[in-house]
Amino acid sequence: GQSLEQPSEVTAVEGAIVQINCTYQTSGFYGLSWYQQHDGGAPTFLSYNALDGLEETGRFSSFLSRSDSYGYLLLQELQMKDSASYFCAAGSGAGSYQLTFGKGTKLSVIP
Amino acid sequence: DTGVSQNPRHKITKRGQNVTFRCDPISEHNRLYWYRQTLGQGPEFLTYFQNEAQLEKSRLLSDRFSAERPKGSFSTLEIQRTEQGDSAMYLCASSSEQGSNYGYTFGSGTRLTVV
After folding, report:
1. What is the dihedral of CA A97, A100, A106, A107, to 10 degrees?
2. What value does the mean pLDDT take over residues A44-64?
3. How large is the C-alpha radius of gyration of chain A?
4. Which end of chain A is more exposed for a tag (fewer CB within 10 A), N or C?
C-alpha cells in the first residue's frame, strides 16, 4: 500500500513564496503528481515528477527526491487565486494507473 | 474540448435506493477513472478503464458498486442499496496514453447525499 503525508494547512502572504512538502511510504512508486482543488471544484493537474529533481511550470515548481521519499510543491509570486487545497499523489506503476492521494494542504493566501 | 462532464451534479437519495452516475470523458482519451472524495480527504481510487475494459478495481469497491464503459466512451457508476457511508463526491477523470502518466483531467463530480 501507499501513504502520503502533507501539512493540513499553510498560510502565506500575497506575493510571497510557499513550499508544500509531501513525504510518502509506498510498496511501489512510479512518480509524484500534484493537483490543485478550489472549494467545490475539480482537482486540476499541476505537475508530475517521474525522476529526481526540479520541474518548473510558470510560477509553480515541483521537486522529487526518491532516496528521501520526499517531494515538494513550490508556489512563487503568490496570488489570492492560489488559495485552494493542494494534493500530492503517488502512482504505483507496474501497469497500474491508480493514484494514491494525500489528504491535502489547504493554502490560504492573505493580503 | 469540453472537458470531462459528469451528471448529475448533485443527487440526494434515501438509504437503500439505487443510484447511477454518468461520466463523459474527453473524447480522445481512452483511459477513464472513478474516484471518491469525502470532506477533508484526498480522492480515493475506485476503478479504471482502458477503452471498454475494466482493468483495475479497488478493494474499496464493494459488491454494491458496479461500473461500466460499454463502448469505450461514456461510463456509468451504479451504487445499489445505498448506505449513509456512501455519501461523498464521486469524481471521474480521463487521460490519454500519450499524456503524462498521472496527469488526469477530472470532472466536477457528482455529490451524493444518502439520507
Report:
1. -50
2. 94
3. 13
4. C
Q: How many CB pairs under 8 A join A and B?
A: 65
Q: According to the model, what pLDDT value does residue A95 have?
A: 67
As given in the structure block, the three cell numbers for residue A24 are 510518502
Give the gap in angstroms from C-alpha B57 to the nearest C-alpha of chain A. 9
Asked if B78 and B67 touch (Cβ cutoff 8 Å), the reply is: yes
Chain B interface includes A66 (CB < 8 A): no
Residue B17 burial (CB count, 10 A): 13
pLDDT computed for residue A87 by the predictor: 98
| Tens digit of each residue's pLDDT (9 = 90 or more) over B49-89 | 999 999 989 887 889 999 999 988 999 999 999 999 999 99
A43 vs B43: CB contact, 8 Å cut-off?
A: yes
Return the pLDDT at A2: 77
Could you tell me how far CA A29 lies from the centroid of its own chain?
15
Q: Which long-range contacts (CB under 8 A, 24 or more apart) does B39-48 make?
A: B40/A103, B40/A104, B41/A103, B41/A104, B42/A87, B42/A89, B42/A101, B42/A102, B42/A103, B42/A104, B43/A43, B43/A87, B43/A99, B43/A101, B43/B91, B44/A101, B45/A98, B45/A99, B45/A100, B46/B77, B48/A97, B48/A98
Is the pLDDT assigned to residue B7 strictly greater than 60?
yes
Q: What is the pLDDT of residues B25-46, one digit of tens each?
A: 999 899 999 999 999 999 999 9
